Amino acid sequence: MDTWQATARSSPASKGKDEGVAMKVYKGWIVAFAEAVLLSGAVMGAPAQTKDLTVDELVAKVIAARGGIEKIRGIQAQRVTGTISFGPGADGPFAVELKRPGKMRMEMTFQGMSMVRSYDGKSAGWANNPFIGKKDVEPMTEVDLKNIGEESDFDGPLVDYKAKGNEIKLVGKDTVEGKEAWRLQLTTKNGDARSYLFDAQTFLLLKWEGKRKGPDGSEFAVESFFRDYRELNGLKFAFEIDSDRPGQPGEQKILVDKIELNPTIDDARFGKPALPAAPPSAPPPSN
Questions:
Q1: Contact 46/64 with Cβ under 8 angstroms?
Q2: How many CB atoms lie within 10 A of CB 125?
Q3: Measured CA distances, 129 to 9, 106, 134, 135, 136 (Å)
Q4: Each residue of 220-251: pLDDT tens digit?
Q5: Max CA separation in the chain (angstroms)
Q6: pLDDT of residue 23
Q7: Band of the pLDDT at 254, cuts 50, 70, 90?
Q8: Cα–Cα separations (whole angstroms), residue 77 to 72, 74, 98, 100, 157
Q9: In sequence order, what are the residues at sequence separation of 6 or more whose Cβ sits closer than 8 angstroms to the Cβ of residue 7?
Q10: In whole angstroms, what separates CA 265 from the centre of its chain?
């Protein structure tokens, strides 16, 4: 899950902080939330595991813990709303809509400005980012389309991972915040590597680790922790995702307020979005 850039380390009153927040918004909340939606669902009561596992055995247990392949694929659409925070006094609402096959729309509002990203599930995507001066909605770049294609994978990277060109290695046991966990390393067909750590008792996702590229092309390590699991229609979802850069101050926190399964969502929502409404202008001075 992406988090923020290193630039967001200035004082609250400084221009530097606003620029840092812009970088966070641009790459921060999008994949973090998408991974939570696609990977964190699970059913209570998965049996404890004591023997060593093969890669396919672990993947099968994770999918079974989420509710099984039929239940996973039974979700045709999903809407999630909540709040994303970059620190005290720096937060705003977000909404994410997903629909098969591969459609996705994300919106967030922060400091009176709104950012929208949409993808039609085929080959076209659009985005604006007023936080870095891009107020108009523009077609996504080839790199953006590659990334959002992964983010909008409704079933997540583990389901049918071989057919998707993903390679998986089971590294072994590890510990996450005092809990024993299985560490799984996944490399996508594009060569991007990341690690997933699953609770050895419940097979819930506890942690994600990986690297992301900033707007200047530099790479940085990121990690996300999944907390506050709640049950919804037989599945469990993480309602809190905390992300940071290891060894760096600051944290991005996503708090989910509501998850709707199989809501009615018009396909037009995933086309080119209209520009977010401008804030009302100030009334003329009275005489």
A1: yes
A2: 24
A3: 20, 12, 5, 6, 8
A4: 899 999 999 898 888 888 999 999 888 888 78
A5: 82
A6: 46
A7: very high
A8: 11, 9, 5, 6, 18
A9: 16, 19, 20, 23
A10: 20
Six-digit token string for 236: 């469990």
Confidence at residue 154, expressed as pLDDT on a 0 to 100 scale: 76
Give CA–CA dist 223/195, Å, rounded.
9
Torsion of CA 36, 221, 216, 125, to 10 degrees: -20
Give the angle 131-38-81 at the CA atoms, nearest 5°. Answer: 50
Q: Is the dihedral of CA 40, 43, 49, 54 positive or negative?
A: negative
Rounded to 5 degrees, φ, ψ at 268 are: -60, -20
pLDDT of residue 90: 85
Residue ranges of domains in the chain, CATH in brackets:
15-270 (2.50.20.10)
CA-closest candidate to residue 168, choices 190, 148, 196, 147 = 196
93 in Cβ contact with 109 (< 8 Å): yes
pLDDT at 5: 28
In this structure, the strands spanning 179-187 and 252-261 are unpaired
262 phi/psi in degrees, rounded to 5: 55, 45
Residue bearing tokens 């079933």 = 155
